[in-house]
Amino acid sequence: MRSRFPRRALRGAMAVASAVALGAGLVACGAGSGSSKEGGSQGKDTVTVAFRTPNWILPISAPGFTQGENAIFGQALYRSLYQYKLDGSAQYNIDPQRSMAEAPVVSDGGRTLTITLKDNTWSDGKPVTTRDIQFWYDLVSANKDKWASYRAGGLPDNIAQWSVKDDKTFSITTTKVFNTAWFVDNQLNKITPMPQHAWDKDSATATVSDLASTPAGAKKVFDFLTAAAKDPKTYDSNELWKVTSGPWKLTKYVPSGEVTLAAQPNYSGVDKPKLAKVVLRPFTGDDAEFNVLRAGDIDYGYVPAANLSQEGYLKSKGYTVSPWYGWSVTYLQLNFNNPKTGVLFKQPYLRQSLQMLIDQPTISKVVWSGTAAPTCGPVPVKPGTNGTDAAGCVYSFDPAKAKELLESHGWKVTPDGQTTCQTPGTGPNQCGDGIAAGTALNLTVTSQTGFAATTKTFAEIKSQMSKLGIQLTIKEVPDSVAVTPACKPADATCSWDMSFFGSQGSWYYPAFASGERLFATGAPVNLGSYSNPEADKLIEATQFSGDESTLKAYNDFLAKDLPVLWMPNPVFQVSAYRSGLQGVEPQDPMNFMYFQDWSWK
């Protein structure tokens, strides 16, 4: 919702999601140093990027820190075992150039995957070995309850045997025979080698040892590293973060402010940086970012939907304008556990009525200026096509049918007034279980600040709902993910009704677009606590069968059952970058940014 709130978010993930914008930061950026036609705004060896300030550095994801900017920042410093691409050119979607290991060799009827590391070194010259993989595995295994990427039954629960053969080779034997594509794309994508020789200790003054090799020791090491990661003011001074494997090193970090990355001279990957420095600059919102972009004081930014009419002006000033399509879906989360409104959301007819009041085609065209397209289900369409035809949605925009559904289930619909339950009960013409007589359809949506198109989207939805007497209150906050957590009805935090974090897509998938992290019962980013046994069965089937029909069956069921309300899916952003900046395209549909590919003409 990588949201990448999750935008891969989680890498997928890496994830909630990513519903968080790169460009909409928490504070205003510092002043630029002036534009340069020959190079960047800060010189020919530097590029300045509109980018929300990352706030997590440890390459083990943590709840509340899964935003997309953290995933991009993390990959710049600490490479994952595997990188992926969706162009269909490689086995299991593995990027053979960027990945730190060869593709897995599958044996034992599909249960065992043997992985061989390539030759890579840490920034201090030490080799990257299986000991660094084992270190990561020991930490997540002993602290899985604190790992944002953990889901019961997933990694590491689905590992029957983890075996290190030598410094370069290790094997994984799974508890069951999984769909290899799913396991490689959605499980192995979580593995990130970590420098055991520098981090395996429980305090800044302790000597590095094999402390993490025992569960008790792994908890101490994890607590130490997590505490350091939660102290961003020391990111650029703490010796821990100076040992990296990625193409960049961190030279300057201002909490909620500017971040500077410098090329890592000892980087051992083949995709070596072509620039000397990347400056990441946050902004308070769309308007602030666009004003600086127009002035020519950043090299790479984005064009808000409300400003797309100025594309010609930007081009005249030497910018290339290009939409960034994402491997994503966008939705409005419903809180099934809210003690007051959860009983409403549990009624399928009511979810259907609400969905039919969202005019996705018009919102996509008018509000998003054609840079969004309807979402019809949980499986995204091919990157670059930006959505699917609204005619393919199970519930298209139909206010008349929505009104009919409400009335046929015991509601007195009062247009532009207040619709209430008139016939309580569980019969075919009654409001439903737990809905008392006189219950009003009053709902609140918690949404993101800083996005003009999002504000206009909910103004349109509010207008349509009011025509049927459904009163919608819109509450905008800086981080809608943080204030709408998964909860139990008795929790004080369970007061939210609906949550939106999809201004740049709610969820960016890993290479295999299954939904075990989103819509399975108890899934880590199932914020609304949706639960349906049939959905669980279909989600599980995608993990075990290589038959593509399983993804279709899962998609078709959830498109109809509505675990969430489907919303227009915008491009991640409409990027604008100086025409002299090379290597930006193609923009990764899973929302990583590979600054090492960039260079000036």
Task: Explain what the structure shows.
- The protein contains 14 helices and 27 strands.
- With 601 residues, the protein is an alpha+beta fold.
- The protein has three domains: 120 residues, Periplasmic binding protein-like II (D-Maltodextrin-Binding Protein, domain 2, 3-Layer(aba) Sandwich), CATH 3.40.190; 115 residues, Dipeptide-binding Protein, Domain 1 (Dipeptide-binding Protein, domain 1), CATH 3.90.76.10; 243 residues, Dipeptide-binding Protein, Domain 3 (Dipeptide-binding Protein, domain 3, Roll), CATH 3.10.105.
- A hairpin with a 7-residue loop joins strand 17 and strand 18.
- Helix 2 packs across helix 5.
- The longest helix has 15 residues.
- It is globular and about 70 Å long.
- This is Peptide/nickel transport system substrate-binding protein.
- GO terms for molecular function: peptide transmembrane transporter activity.
- Its main location: other.
- Keywords: Signal, Transport.
Helical proportion? 10-25%
CATH topology of the largest domain: Dipeptide-binding Protein, domain 3
Radius of gyration over C-alpha positions, nearest whole angstrom = 24 Å
Q: Provide a count of the helices.
A: 14
Structure classification: alpha+beta
CATH architectural arrangement of the largest domain: Roll
Label the overall shape.
globular
Whole-number total of structural domains? 3
What name goes with the CATH superfamily of the largest domain? Dipeptide-binding Protein, Domain 3
Name of the CATH class of the largest domain: Alpha Beta
Task: Report low-confidence residues grouped into runs of 5 or more.
Answer: 1-38, 386-390
Proportion in β-strands: 15-25%
The biggest beta sheet reads:
5 strands, mixed
Q: List the quaternary state of the chains.
A: single chain
| Average predicted confidence as pLDDT | 91
Distance between the termini: 35 Å
